[in-house]
Design goal:
Elements: E1 5-6, E2 18-21, E3 24-27, E4 31-32, H1 43-55, E5 60-62, H2 70-78, E6 81-82, E7 86-91, E8 93-96, E9 99-102, H3 106-120, E10 125-131, H4 149-161, E11 165-171, H5 175-181, E12 188-190, H6 201-210, E13 213-214, H7 234-243, H8 247-258, H9 271-279, H10 287-294
Parallel strand pairs: 1-6, 4-5, 5-7, 7-10, 10-11, 11-12, 12-13
Antiparallel strand pairs: 2-3, 8-9
Length: 298
């Protein structure tokens, strides 16, 4: 397979500034493509959304082979890829008959990496995140899917040594698991975290200690019905009204203010929301507003 890259797009101010992700430099506001799986406006709208993201300065896309057609959409919209585009994928699950199932065994992880490479049309993924299935939210591993972390990391290290992975990330992990993985070299951690969900604060503290990129998923709260949303919290709404921004922008800007190496990957299938999310990178919260949001009780 031949790697295809095209010259980077004309310079655009990186939303949120920049930070390091593995050996690459990315805008601190990226785009998580998962919701394109559920887009109702059709294929062309999804392709347009991906192109819109890059036109607004995004150069970090978060995807996974188990996000249905998302990898194929990324390739259709953006191939040959700009030189500065960082493609990050995730392994640890499969989609079977429309349902997500755990796929945690080392040989399954390798197969998922190979699938990503093939569908995206690249020889190397900039980062691959290992999505553990030990605890909520989402999948819980059972039976032969309960695999020790060291075995999984060994497989990913082998793939990294072979040049198929640039960096290894972790997703949905505890502080103890992150400590266990540190000798491997951890590029980033993706955990459930937002202004209203801070159970993984100890993991963020460890990322700060070791200068590891922090990539919160569900940065606006759960997308599932009947679950709390950051955009509905009274304090978030009040700050948004005071500074003339949307609640989503306030919640995202708070995350950026928490740690200089926070990278955001908010997802949406709505072009208006996409523009608003990316614009959150340019929101500077007053110190008093940050302090008020810090005191929000999850």
């Amino acid at each position: 397979m031949t790697e295809h890259r095209s010259p980077a797009a004309p310079a655009t101010t990186p939303p949120g500034g920049t930070a390091k992700l593995a050996d690459r430099t990315v805008a601190r506001v990226g785009f998580g493509v998962m919701q394109l799986h559920y887009a109702t406006d059709g294929r062309e709208a999804a392709l347009g959304l991906l192109r819109q993201a890059l036109s607004l300065g995004v150069n970090h896309l978060d995807t996974a082979h188990f996000y249905g057609p998302c990898n194929e959409l990324v390739r259709a919209a953006l191939f040959p890829y700009p030189d500065d585009l960082v493609l990050v994928s995730k392994v640890g699950a499969d989609e079977v008959d429309g349902k997500l199932v755990a796929a945690q065994r080392p040989e399954q992880l390798r197969a998922q990496v190979e699938d990503n490479l093939s569908v995206l049309g690249v020889e190397r993924l900039d980062v691959v995140n290992l999505r553990r299935a030990d605890a909520p939210p989402g999948l819980i591993a059972e039976g032969d899917q309960k695999v020790d972390l060291d075995s999984q990391l060994a497989e990913l290290v082998a793939l990294r040594d072979a040049g198929k992975i640039g960096g290894i990330g972790l997703s949905n992990v505890s502080a103890d698991q992150l400590r266990q993985a540190l000798p491997t070299g951890v590029a980033c951690v993706q955990n459930d975290y937002s202004v209203i969900e801070r159970a993984t604060e100890p993991v963020l503290d460890l990322c700060r200690e070791h200068d590891i990129a922090w990539v919160p998923f569900c940065p606006l709260g759960s997308r599932f019905p009947n679950r709390p949303k950051a955009t509905a919290h009274p304090e978030v709404v009040a700050v948004a009204e005071e500074i003339g921004r949307t609640p989503a922008q306030v919640a995202l800007a708070w995350l950026l203010a928490r740690y200089p190496h926070t990278l955001l990957i908010p997802g949406t299938a709505d072009p208006v929301h996409l523009g608003e999310n990316i614009a959150a990178g340019n929101v500077s919260l007053p110190p008093e507003a940050v302090a008020r949001l810090d005191r929000v009780q999850p």
